[in-house]
Amino acid sequence: MRSKRNFYPALFVLCLAPLGQIVLDIYTPSLPTIATSFHITTGMAQFSVTICILFYSILQIFYGPISDKVGRKKPLLFALIIFLLGSITCSFANSIGILILGRTLQGIGTAGTSVFYKVIAADNYQGKRLAYLYTYAALLAGISPVLAPVIGAYIQVHLNWQYNFLFLAIYAVLLLLLFIKLPESHAERRQFHLTQYKQDIKSLFRDRNFIAGVLGGASILVLMMVFGIIAPFIVQDVLHQSVMTYGHVAMVTGIAFICGSLVNRILLRKLSLELINSSVFIIMLCASCYLLICTLNHLVTLTNLTLVAFVIFMGIGGLYPNCLMMALRAGTNIRGTVSALFGTLAMGTAGLAILIASFIPVHSALPLASFFTVFTLVALFGLFFRRGTECVAT
After folding, report:
1. Are 252 and 304 in contact (CB under 8 A)?
2. How does pLDDT run across 127-173, given as a tens digit for each residue?
3. I want to staple 315 with a disulfide (CB 3.0 to 4.6 A). Which of 46, 84, 270, 284 is the partner?
């Protein structure tokens, strides 16, 4: 009985982990179709992604401390119900206004699910078991934005883009059914005091592990999400390929992500987390610069775009769980707050990047290559800043 009880939280975590990424990416292949159907601009269609990300990122900071005070289950139930309502709203949207309303509700709900899969895992497991669970959860969360567009492309071709949100509503119902038997994992409640909360936040911003983890995690999310909203237009409008072709490109990046996750697990047995992160980010920077050079010389093809995406997503597959584990070193008795602040900062950065990207016309691969280059440099800055701080301390 005990083994079954110990297994159930892991099962729930693994089912919950991909939701935040699926909701952002499953309908991205349909963005050009949505823009045409509603007679709106490309930027307005992309704003339906941005609004979800903004609420997704901002509200995480509230779910964390609330869960530290009242437990995990009540706020998680609220988040799942709000997400379900948002999905149903989007599935019946007949205007961009209704779609944005539904996406707002989805963002509010997803903010909670993103916090709780990390926290419930940390509440129930420790040491290597927690590390392995985070690896598998990160694998599912990371591969979701890759496989979700493939699913979304097939749904659009054979049904319609609204059915993507019906798929999400069904997923939410399944999560609610699993939620029924989920045990409360936070028995030791922590009273919320604003002064203490401010001190916790300040201590995290002074922690070099947390800063390096957030910069790395934020950069990874930017790379994934910017690819998700820009690449469909590059493939379909610039390279004049079909929506299914983009779906196949996304499938290739999914394979890359899986390979990166498997290679990372092997490397962690022999090398330090910091060495792996810095080496992989340097390789990703080289691939980004290659795409930038190809773009400036008008040499971008479907082949070299897919090759660069393969390298980038293989790196992402290994790096995201590493960045998360690095950030969580910052505090063990305030896991809800640490997870929430990590998610808020990482997703907030990604949301800001998506907002900027939505105002940039996509006439070439230059916007994508620029984002890739800039944010791999940001991640490397975080790692070298951390190393420099350690050297000074020594």
Report:
1. no
2. 666 666 777 777 777 677 667 877 888 888 778 888 888 989 998 99
3. 284
